[in-house]
Input
Amino acid sequence: MRTILSVTLLFISAWVNGQIKTQPMASTNLPKNIRYQGKPVQLIKYQDNTGSYLAITTQTGTQPQKGDDEFKQAHLYGYVYQLKDGGSPVLLWQLHDMVTDCNLDMVANFIPGSLTIIDLDKNGKAEVWVAYRLSCRGDVSPSELKIIMHEGTTKYAKRGIGKIKVGNAIQHDGGVITSDEFKKAPVSFKVYAGKLWDKYVLETM
Output
């Protein structure tokens, strides 16, 4: 009986330790020594078996392009900081993507709510997922769609062209995956990335 109880307690302990604790955070509550560019979009504090972290997505919106009044630019940033008790946060990784040299309609936006922290492979290390669109267009054409995942400093990405939905009509163009690093990823990552692609591929105009 004691053996069964001990095994059960060990199983429960391992299960609890493998959970990812997440907490949304307001930008007004950020520590002063956290550095970022752009305007905060989504902030999540999380803890896994390797420590405590803060994930941030930001975007600048459309800006004038320095040195050229004709063109504009927009930038996206993603950050993960490791939080140290009594010490300064350490930048674990940073994402930076952009649209530049654009004098048409510009899209450079994180998909709302796409910053997600999970542990699909149940190894106690969090996976940080984001998805965003980029385009410079003068007509009804689809944006680039990118789905990015980091587990620690390991990165995978799925990139392609989305599809446009206008009213109830879906345009024929797009819906093409041009690069898929998840082909070499664990199965759980590959399947989840595919689900996110299906979820986000349609861009409504």
Observations:
- The first strand starts at residue 21 and ends at 24.
- The chain has one domain: 20-204.
- The mean pLDDT is 90.
